[in-house]
Amino acid sequence: MENKQQPILDGPILDGIDPEIMNRLASRREAIRKGASVSSLVAAGLALGSVPVALAALAKDAFGQTPSDILDVLQFAFILENLENEFYKAVLGTSAVAAQNTAFAPVRALIPAPAREAIQQIQKHEQQHTDFLRATIPMFGGTAPTITANDFDFTGGNGSNTGPFARATTELDFLLLAAQAFEDTGV
Protein backbone atom coordinates (compact mmCIF):
# COMPACT_ATOMS: atom_id res chain seq x y z
CA MET A 1 0.00 0.00 0.00
CA GLU A 2 1.33 3.40 -1.00
CA ASN A 3 2.12 5.74 1.88
CA LYS A 4 0.68 9.13 0.90
CA GLN A 5 1.35 12.21 2.93
CA GLN A 6 -1.86 13.45 4.55
CA PRO A 7 -2.91 17.09 4.67
CA ILE A 8 -2.42 18.96 7.90
CA LEU A 9 -5.89 19.85 9.08
CA ASP A 10 -5.35 21.33 12.52
CA GLY A 11 -1.56 21.56 12.70
CA PRO A 12 0.67 24.57 12.44
CA ILE A 13 1.04 25.91 8.92
CA LEU A 14 4.82 25.66 9.13
CA ASP A 15 4.60 21.86 9.53
CA GLY A 16 3.90 21.66 5.79
CA ILE A 17 7.19 23.33 4.87
CA ASP A 18 10.30 21.40 3.90
CA PRO A 19 12.72 21.53 6.90
CA GLU A 20 15.62 22.53 4.62
CA ILE A 21 13.65 25.56 3.44
CA MET A 22 12.75 26.51 7.01
CA ASN A 23 16.45 26.33 7.94
CA ARG A 24 17.32 28.70 5.09
CA LEU A 25 14.58 31.15 6.14
CA ALA A 26 15.72 30.95 9.77
CA SER A 27 19.34 31.57 8.72
CA ARG A 28 18.29 34.64 6.74
CA ARG A 29 16.32 35.97 9.70
CA GLU A 30 19.29 35.40 12.04
CA ALA A 31 21.69 37.17 9.68
CA ILE A 32 19.38 40.16 9.45
CA ARG A 33 18.87 40.20 13.23
CA LYS A 34 22.61 40.17 13.95
CA GLY A 35 23.42 42.75 11.28
CA ALA A 36 20.64 45.20 11.97
CA SER A 37 21.43 48.35 13.91
CA VAL A 38 17.86 49.61 13.73
CA SER A 39 14.74 49.11 15.79
CA SER A 40 13.84 45.47 16.40
CA LEU A 41 10.44 46.20 14.87
CA VAL A 42 12.05 47.33 11.62
CA ALA A 43 14.43 44.36 11.65
CA ALA A 44 11.50 42.02 12.19
CA GLY A 45 9.69 43.58 9.27
CA LEU A 46 12.72 43.12 7.05
CA ALA A 47 13.24 39.54 8.20
CA LEU A 48 9.61 38.57 7.67
CA GLY A 49 8.85 40.67 4.61
CA SER A 50 9.26 37.86 2.10
CA VAL A 51 7.82 35.02 4.18
CA PRO A 52 4.25 35.08 2.75
CA VAL A 53 5.50 34.65 -0.79
CA ALA A 54 8.12 32.10 0.28
CA LEU A 55 5.60 30.03 2.21
CA ALA A 56 3.16 30.07 -0.67
CA ALA A 57 5.83 29.12 -3.18
CA LEU A 58 7.76 26.60 -1.13
CA ALA A 59 5.11 24.54 0.67
CA LYS A 60 5.60 20.83 0.02
CA ASP A 61 2.04 20.15 -1.07
CA ALA A 62 -1.18 22.06 -1.63
CA PHE A 63 -3.79 19.53 -0.53
CA GLY A 64 -7.38 19.81 -1.62
CA GLN A 65 -7.03 23.16 -3.33
CA THR A 66 -8.67 23.76 -6.65
CA PRO A 67 -7.22 26.28 -9.11
CA SER A 68 -9.93 28.76 -8.08
CA ASP A 69 -8.93 28.39 -4.40
CA ILE A 70 -5.32 29.09 -5.32
CA LEU A 71 -6.37 32.05 -7.47
CA ASP A 72 -8.42 33.49 -4.59
CA VAL A 73 -5.40 33.23 -2.27
CA LEU A 74 -3.09 34.83 -4.84
CA GLN A 75 -5.52 37.71 -5.45
CA PHE A 76 -5.91 38.29 -1.71
CA ALA A 77 -2.12 38.20 -1.29
CA PHE A 78 -1.83 40.70 -4.15
CA ILE A 79 -4.14 43.14 -2.33
CA LEU A 80 -2.17 42.75 0.93
CA GLU A 81 1.18 43.20 -0.81
CA ASN A 82 -0.15 46.35 -2.52
CA LEU A 83 -1.36 47.66 0.84
CA GLU A 84 2.09 47.17 2.36
CA ASN A 85 3.89 48.57 -0.69
CA GLU A 86 1.73 51.70 -0.79
CA PHE A 87 2.11 52.18 2.98
CA TYR A 88 5.89 52.17 2.74
CA LYS A 89 5.81 54.44 -0.33
CA ALA A 90 3.72 56.95 1.64
CA VAL A 91 6.09 56.70 4.61
CA LEU A 92 9.06 57.35 2.31
CA GLY A 93 7.29 60.16 0.44
CA THR A 94 7.23 58.33 -2.91
CA SER A 95 3.50 57.62 -3.17
CA ALA A 96 1.68 58.60 -6.34
CA VAL A 97 -0.81 60.35 -4.03
CA ALA A 98 0.61 63.67 -2.85
CA ALA A 99 -1.77 63.81 0.12
CA GLN A 100 -0.34 60.56 1.49
CA ASN A 101 3.21 61.87 1.12
CA THR A 102 2.17 65.04 2.94
CA ALA A 103 0.38 63.12 5.70
CA PHE A 104 3.53 61.12 6.53
CA ALA A 105 5.93 64.10 6.27
CA PRO A 106 5.99 64.79 10.06
CA VAL A 107 7.00 61.24 10.97
CA ARG A 108 9.31 60.90 7.99
CA ALA A 109 11.47 63.64 9.52
CA LEU A 110 11.84 61.52 12.69
CA ILE A 111 13.05 58.32 11.01
CA PRO A 112 16.76 57.70 11.69
CA ALA A 113 18.90 56.97 8.62
CA PRO A 114 19.42 53.24 9.39
CA ALA A 115 15.68 52.74 9.87
CA ARG A 116 14.96 54.69 6.67
CA GLU A 117 17.33 52.37 4.78
CA ALA A 118 15.56 49.32 6.21
CA ILE A 119 12.15 50.76 5.27
CA GLN A 120 13.42 51.45 1.74
CA GLN A 121 14.58 47.84 1.47
CA ILE A 122 11.25 46.52 2.78
CA GLN A 123 9.37 48.70 0.27
CA LYS A 124 11.51 47.31 -2.56
CA HIS A 125 10.65 43.79 -1.41
CA GLU A 126 6.95 44.63 -1.27
CA GLN A 127 7.18 45.96 -4.83
CA GLN A 128 8.86 42.71 -5.91
CA HIS A 129 6.11 40.69 -4.23
CA THR A 130 3.47 42.79 -6.00
CA ASP A 131 5.20 42.36 -9.36
CA PHE A 132 5.58 38.60 -8.79
CA LEU A 133 1.90 38.17 -7.92
CA ARG A 134 0.79 40.38 -10.83
CA ALA A 135 2.72 38.04 -13.17
CA THR A 136 1.60 34.83 -11.41
CA ILE A 137 -2.15 35.43 -11.18
CA PRO A 138 -2.71 35.13 -14.97
CA MET A 139 -0.99 31.72 -14.87
CA PHE A 140 -3.99 30.53 -12.85
CA GLY A 141 -6.49 32.05 -15.26
CA GLY A 142 -7.11 35.22 -13.29
CA THR A 143 -6.55 38.92 -13.53
CA ALA A 144 -4.76 40.85 -10.82
CA PRO A 145 -7.14 43.27 -9.09
CA THR A 146 -6.77 46.90 -10.13
CA ILE A 147 -5.39 48.66 -7.08
CA THR A 148 -4.00 52.18 -6.84
CA ALA A 149 -2.53 54.24 -4.03
CA ASN A 150 -5.89 56.06 -3.83
CA ASP A 151 -7.53 52.83 -2.67
CA PHE A 152 -5.85 53.01 0.75
CA ASP A 153 -6.51 55.24 3.75
CA PHE A 154 -3.66 54.67 6.17
CA THR A 155 -5.16 56.72 9.00
CA GLY A 156 -8.53 54.97 8.94
CA GLY A 157 -10.29 58.34 8.85
CA ASN A 158 -12.00 58.03 5.46
CA GLY A 159 -9.71 60.64 3.96
CA SER A 160 -9.85 63.04 6.91
CA ASN A 161 -6.38 62.05 8.22
CA THR A 162 -7.94 61.95 11.69
CA GLY A 163 -8.63 58.23 11.95
CA PRO A 164 -7.52 55.87 14.72
CA PHE A 165 -4.13 55.34 13.05
CA ALA A 166 -3.33 59.00 12.43
CA ARG A 167 -0.57 58.82 15.06
CA ALA A 168 1.41 56.68 12.60
CA THR A 169 1.89 59.86 10.57
CA THR A 170 3.33 61.87 13.48
CA GLU A 171 4.93 59.48 16.01
CA LEU A 172 7.85 57.20 15.14
CA ASP A 173 6.97 54.49 17.67
CA PHE A 174 3.40 54.34 16.41
CA LEU A 175 4.62 54.23 12.80
CA LEU A 176 6.85 51.26 13.64
CA LEU A 177 3.94 49.51 15.38
CA ALA A 178 1.77 50.07 12.30
CA ALA A 179 4.56 48.71 10.08
CA GLN A 180 4.83 45.64 12.31
CA ALA A 181 1.06 45.16 12.10
CA PHE A 182 1.22 45.28 8.30
CA GLU A 183 4.05 42.73 8.28
CA ASP A 184 2.21 40.46 10.74
CA THR A 185 -0.92 40.64 8.58
CA GLY A 186 1.06 39.46 5.57
CA VAL A 187 2.52 36.47 7.41
Give a quick set of tags describing it:
7 helices, disordered N terminus, 187 residues, mainly alpha, 59% helix
Could you explain the architecture of this structure?
By secondary structure, this protein is an all-alpha fold. It has one domain. Helices cover 59% and strands 0% of the residues. The chain contains 7 helices and no strands. It has helices at residues 19-35, 40-48, 51-58, 67-92, 98-108, 113-136, 172-186. The longest helix has 26 residues, at 67-92. The protein is globular, with a radius of gyration of 18 Å. The termini are far apart.
Order of helices and strands: HHHHHHH
Bin the helical content.
55-70%
The percent range for strand residues is under 5%
Distance between the terminal alpha carbons, to the nearest Å?
37 Å
- Are there runs of 5+ residues with pLDDT below 50, and where? 1-14, 31-64
Task: Give the topology.
Layout: H1 19-35, H2 40-48, H3 51-58, H4 67-92, H5 98-108, H6 113-136, H7 172-186
Helix pairs in contact: 1-2, 2-6, 2-7, 4-5, 4-6, 4-7
What's this model, at a glance?
The chain is mainly alpha-helical and 187 residues long. 59% of the residues lie in helices and 0% in strands.
